[in-house]
Write a structure and sequence with these properties.
alpha+beta; 2 domains; single chain; 9-stranded mixed beta sheet; Immunoglobulin-like
């Protein structure tokens, strides 16, 4: 009788351990599947997103330089969250030797050493304003990004603006000071 009871307890311990192991394996597979699905979704978002830096124009006054950059959304996804975009400018600074590199922060209003989404267009060159979702860069729309640099850009030099979106897209365009 004692042997049968011991055998029965051992059998239940083996069954319990097996069930725990199977449950752990199933949970692990589920976590991996979820992780893979999130990774694939992020990859699709990156593949469907594209920007192009189309043109720049620099305007210099006594104390600062304003650079207007036209950006087009060449992808299939709408872009926003501009406060999460990285904008870096490299240029020759008035009265200082060497190159100046500034990481600009986003601002809703134009101020020194910041950038703003000045306006949105269906067609910037022909002055056709956007109609749908104001404040978002939808597919095939264009955005006028305005950068204000202080101190100003050295005359007759070339500067460089690099824009990086939260999904990792990077574009670089040059301007003349």
């Amino acid at each position: 009788m004692g042997t049968a009871l011991t055998s029965l307890i051992a059998l239940f311990l083996v069954i319990g351990s097996t069930m725990t192991a199977v449950n752990t394996v199933l949970d692990s597979g589920s976590d991996r599947t979820l992780s893979l699905a999130v990774s694939n979704e992020r990859l699709v978002a990156e593949l469907e997103t594209s920007i192009g830096l189309v043109s720049t124009t620099a305007y210099t006054n006594a104390g600062s330089t304003r650079v207007d950059i036209v950006i087009t959304n060449d992808g299939r996804r709408s872009l926003g969250s501009f406060e999460d975009w990285d904008v870096t400018v490299r240029y020759e600074q008035r009265g200082a030797p060497g190159e100046t590199v500034i990481h600009l922060s986003y601002s809703a209003t134009e101020s020194d050493n910041t950038w703003t989404d000045a306006s949105f267009w269906i067609d910037y060159d022909n002055s056709v304003a956007e109609l749908i979702e104001p404040g978002r860069l939808n597919p095939l729309e264009e955005m006028l990004m305005r950068v204000r640099l202080n101190p100003r850009v050295e005359a007759s030099t070339t500067g460089e603006v690099t824009v990086t979106t939260p999904t990792g897209l990077t574009g670089t365009i040059f301007f003349d000071g």
